[in-house]
Amino acid sequence: MKILMLNNEFPPLGGGTGTVNLELFRIFQTIPNLKVDLISSAGGQNKEIEQFSENIRILKYPVGKKDIHHASNFELIRYAIKSTFVALKLNRKEKYDLVFVWSTVPAGFPSILLKLFKKLPFILRVGGPDIPGFEERYNFIYKIITPFIKFVWKRASIIVAKCKIEKEMVENINPNLKIQIINNGIDTSKFSYIEKDINSELRIICSARLIKRKGQYTLIDAMVELKSKDIKIHIDFVGEGDEKQAYINYAKEKDVLEQIIFSGYVPREDMPEKYQKSDIFVLPSFNEGMSNSLLEAMACGLPVVVTNVGGTEELVDASNGYIFKAGDSQALSKILEQLYKSKQQIKILGQNSRNKAEQHNWEYIANEYLKLFNKISV
């Protein structure tokens, strides 16, 4: 089977979507009679061809990349145009069986042309922000591109969602689509659980892009409340984003900057150690699909404190953490205060997190995709 994949981000570029792509490739490289070409973006100004494995090739094209973690509208448009020409040319030579599209925007554009003019079926995996209404900062853009998104969805052979909430959001826009849920996975050998003592001054890790949607202001406000009660907690914000300097200024204004570390971008291979040195994982997002960081933290045996959004309720319950209302810093501070006072509870919740994470291994997830590929390419 020959598959063409379209994804404007692939590590080290981008975020969760690229990470999932990478993890699936690690499984797909072992599958006989499967060949995959991925068209992605280059970090520099030159075309790059990476032979990921004997059966997987990654073609990276320059799009004027400025930030490895964020794609501007200009970069997305350039990728859509460039990938279209490349995809049409490649298909003439390779005669693909199907196209796999990672996110409606920008990869939906070349996939539609291949469908209309070459009769190539395509599977579309929604990424979250490509669902109208998912991210508030894109509200104006959604008004412009929603007709295009609906057009692409309607012509997909099937749509893949990471969690129930994504499926429901897509169905609210068009209830007649074929949608299958395939969760994200986790490498439980790489992100491993290590028995350790809980730090006397709790170490909280929040691994997420520094943007408003991820809700880091809520965690900073909770820190202010905890400091007023003389509760010793430190926060490690891992990630980059548009709000970074605003968060630094806000923490300084609230007099808690000394208790916060802004680690910036941390290479993926170094993340297990980051989690293992922490005591609690907090993700205060206002909207989320199924967070890779959440699964990583769980695999490393951390209690998880998350908001009542996206796919979090499919991973978190009273056995391994807490769920609170997005934006409610008072609720968050009470949860962290309770955990601060009960180190034993931290250990119990962390062990249960690890047990849950082991049910989401990448081998199972990759097999779900392979079954889907075989079904659609027939």
What does this molecule look like?
It is a single chain. The protein has 378 residues and is of the alpha/beta class. The chain folds into 2 domains: 2-185 and 361-377, 3-Layer(aba) Sandwich (Rossmann fold); 202-357, Glycogen Phosphorylase B (Rossmann fold, 3-Layer(aba) Sandwich). Helix content is 40%, strand content 19%. It has helices at residues 16-28, 73-94, 108-118, 139-155, 164-173, 216-228, 244-253, 271-276, 292-299, 329-340, 343-357, 362-377, and strands spanning 2-6, 35-42, 48-53, 56-62, 98-102, 122-125, 158-161, 179-181, 202-207, 233-238, 260-264, 280-283, 304-307, 321-324. The strands form 2 sheets. The chain has an 8-stranded mixed sheet with strand order 3-4-2-1-5-6-7-8, with helices on both faces. A 6-stranded parallel sheet has the order 11-10-9-12-13-14, sandwiched between helices. Helix 1 crosses helix 12 (362-377), helix 2 packs parallel to helix 3 and helix 9 packs across helix 11 (343-357). The protein is globular, with a radius of gyration of 21 Å. The N and C termini lie close together (10 Å).
